[in-house]
Design brief:
The chain has 75 residues and is an alpha+beta fold. It is built from 1 helix and 6 strands, in the order αββββββ. A 3-stranded antiparallel beta sheet has the order 1-4-5. A 3-stranded mixed beta sheet has the order 2-6-3, with no helix packed on it. The chain is globular.
Length: 75
């Protein structure tokens, strides 16, 4: 429980500063917010060029990217 409380406090600090997490899961890959670190073959119903999973969260403040999300993309 202690770690969970610390994470919630940290997320509140980020939100209070106007910083939001970048979560492009299921969306079309965009190099403006994310860095593709791996490509995986498309499965049933998956569309090429979409983000399958976020490996490392990214963050932005307004339109400025502070850290790009590292993602796995469907090829």
């Amino acid at each position: 429980k202690g770690l969970e409380m610390v994470l919630k406090s940290f997320e509140k600090v980020l939100t209070d500063e106007g910083i939001e997490a970048i979560d492009p899961t299921g969306k079309a890959f965009s190099a403006d917010e994310a860095e593709a670190i791996m490509a995986v073959p498309a499965g049933n119903g998956e569309e090429s060029g979409t983000v399958k999973q976020v490996y490392l969260k990214g963050y932005k403040k307004g339109d400025k990217v502070l850290r790009y999300a590292q993602v796995i993309v469907v090829s």
